[in-house]
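During the no-cost extension, the postdoctoral fellow (Dr. R.K.) reprocessed legacy sequence entries with the updated structure-token encoder. One reprocessed record is reproduced below for audit purposes.
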Amino acid sequence: MKKWNIFKMFNMQFDELHQRQFLWTVPYTELTESLRLAVAEKLLGELFEGKSVNEPPRR
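Re-encoded structure tokens follow.
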């Protein structure tokens, strides 16, 4: 897949999630952080070909 297609897909997913979730409030700090990581994993997974967000980059 070409890089511009990957970025286009990322932007589309980000916009979709942002529209659905930007008004959400989560009163528990631990849950908030867990949700942030889950969303990042979903969005960034496309860009980094399924690698975990917390996984160090390969060289």
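The chain has two helices and no strands. The chain has one domain: 3-47. The remaining legacy entries will be reprocessed before the final report is submitted.
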